[in-house]
Amino acid sequence: MALETVHIQEKLTQQFGENVFRFEMQRDIFSFEANASIIHAVIQFLKEEEELNFHFLTDLAAVHYPDNDADHQFAVVYQLHNWVENTRIRVRAYLNENPVIDTITDLFLSANWMEREAFDFYGVDFKGHPQLKRILNMDEMESFPLRKEFPMEDGGRTDKDDRFFGRTTVNC
User: What family is reported (predicted)?
Assistant: First the structure.
């Protein structure tokens, strides 16, 4: 029997109530949002619940939404895969302007480098991470280059325009 999205939603709402919401299909992937305060429990439930069986963390990424309100400035997006049923799921948790969320490295070892990358480029602090430090940028770097307030190019260049990349122009 195939794993139906309705069944996944029922199991999640039964377990977490109003802390999981906005269930929808996005480009053929069942997606929903969860409160950041319970994200570890949600991911653990998706992995360990025998009927759900999402045992593979495909991806973990951060996103910066500078135009959103203060409580939704950042999002951490988790993509999980159930290999048995060949079902994918996406979980999104929004964070405020000082992004802090629990680590899931105890659930998925592969989350280690993914969380370090999100920290390195967006400044997301993963509480409980065993070694949260920069992974690609220099340790001395104080900014987080994929935040949208970080200019993409040298302000003196005329061949690139940040407006074409969804960023506002930064005056240097």
Answer: Belongs to the complex I 30 kDa subunit family.
Tokens of 106: 């105890």
What are the DSSP calls for 68-110, one per residue?
S-GGGSEEEEEEEEETTTTEEEEEEEEE-SS-EEE--TTT-TT
One DSSP character per residue, 100-125 reads EEE--TTT-TTHHHHHHHHHHHH--E
Give yes or no for a contact between 92 and 24, defined as CB atoms under 8 angstroms apart: no
Q: Find how far residue 14's CA is from the centre of its chain.
A: 23
Q: 36 near 95, Cβ under 8 Å?
A: yes
pLDDT of 144 higher than 70: yes
CB atoms within 10 A of CB 97: 13
| Local structure of 167: helix, strand or coil | coil
Q: Averaged over 91-115, what is the pLDDT?
A: 97
pLDDT at position 62: 97
Q: How confident is the model at residue 172 (pLDDT cuts 50, 70, 90)?
A: very low
List domains and CATH numbers for the chain: 5-153 (3.30.460.80)
Q: What share of the chain is helix, strand, coil (3-state, %, to 5)?
A: 25, 25, 45
